[in-house]
Amino acid sequence: MFRTKRSGLVRRLWRSRAPVEGDGETDRGTHGSSGGCCMGKAAKVAKSNDAGSEAELKALTHSVLKKIKEKQLEVLLQAVESKGGARSPCLLLPSKVDAKVGQQSYSLPMLLYKVFRWPDLRHSSELKRLSCCESYGKINPDLVCCNPHHMSRLCELESPPPPYSRYPMDYLKPPDSPDSGPSSSDTGGTTYSAPVGLSDSLALQESGESAHWCVVAYWEEKTRVGRLYSVQEPSLDIFYDLPQGNGFCLGQLCSDNKSQLVQMVRAKIGYGIQLTREPDGVWVYNRSCYPIFIKSATLDNPDSRTLLVHKVFPGFSIKAFDYDKACSLQRPNDHEFTQQPRTGFTVQISFVKGWGQCYTRQFISSCPCWLEVIFNTR
């Protein structure tokens, strides 16, 4: 019975492995090797045969998994089958055990990350550990967490950026029309001029509540849905449907928008994103099955006169906001970086649909479902 259960867990794990691009099983919800501005050069090279044959990889994976304790296999299976949607504990395993596939050697964590998350993963430098993990911030421990869903792929920004993510400052000038909508929506700038939003933000600070480091507004096209969500905890899940989710649930908000496109995109938000304040800045982890698009002043070159919209694929993380850079970008003659009292800088995040020069949507306010994250920089 013991052997049967262990073998059954191993077989289920192998069936749940990440599909390799081109094998006929690739699912858009688990991809991570398509081209894009966050992929970096390493992920864009042609798929090689260094990883060895499928049979060799299967034999090695089965051999490694059979040496893992049964309870640890259950933890790994829970994480893999839920695609990170269910909370799973750390999977602490020896970090210095190497496995060889073909001519390439991998550490035990790297092998599990490749098999169950990113088949095109080449080096540990492409990874970022999530702050929820016990191994976060630890250097070379004897035991390291090998839970593939406690890791994310680093979003490597291109230089220069691809054409679709670049649009000139002329597009950012507020329209003269009085009914053009809030300036923060149409310009993508840091000025938050929606009266209700400001009153909500002021109320949060004047009501005596514990200090928040940011507030989040959810928009559908030019209409804000729900109130501002104040964030005190270091990490926040923003999602539409998450099996075990605490945080900002967009699915619980009442929306009157009947647009088929809005409803379609809303349903694709799924596990959404994770917003985390870390020592080096604020990170966004894309937990959904579709790309997200991010614009932030601190992602741009300070000397550039263009703003960039960065595409972040599922499973990838990007440092969306840097407090040190934000302080140095306070240029009074540039409306993009002008701050209103109490509102601070903002980051715009669109689900599924992008915006910019080479899209039909020039401004984020034309995107079906998007977020505005307003940082408290005081």
Instruction: Bin the helical content.
Output: 10-25%
Tally of individual helices: 8
Poorly predicted tracts of residues: 24-36, 40-51, 160-199, 201-208, 331-343
Instruction: Note the gap between the termini.
Output: 61 Å
Main sheet: strand order: 4-6-17-13-12-10-11
CA radius of gyration: 22 Å
Major pleated sheet? 7 strands, mixed
Mean pLDDT: 76
How large is the share of residues in beta strands?
15-25%
Name the structural class: alpha+beta
- Shape descriptor reads globular
Q: Tally of extended strands? A: 19
SSE arrangement, N to C: HHHEEEHEEEEHHEEEEHEEEEEEHEE
Describe the protein's architecture and organization:
With 378 residues, this protein is α+β, with helices and mostly antiparallel strands. It is 21% helix and 23% strand. It has 8 helices and 19 strands. The protein has helices at residues 2-15, 54-65, 70-81, 108-116, 183-187, 195-206, 260-268, 323-328; strands at residues 92-94, 98-101, 104-107, 127-129, 143-145, 151-154, 166-168, 214-220, 223-231, 235-239, 247-249, 273-278, 281-286, 292-295, 306-308, 310-312, 316-321, 346-351, 370-375. Strands 4-6-17-13-12-10-11 form a 7-stranded mixed sheet. Strands 9-8-19-18-14-16 form a 6-stranded antiparallel sheet. Helix 1 packs parallel to helix 3 (70-81). The chain is globular, with a radius of gyration of 22 Å. The model is unreliable at 24-36, 40-51, 160-199, 201-208 and 331-343 (pLDDT under 50).
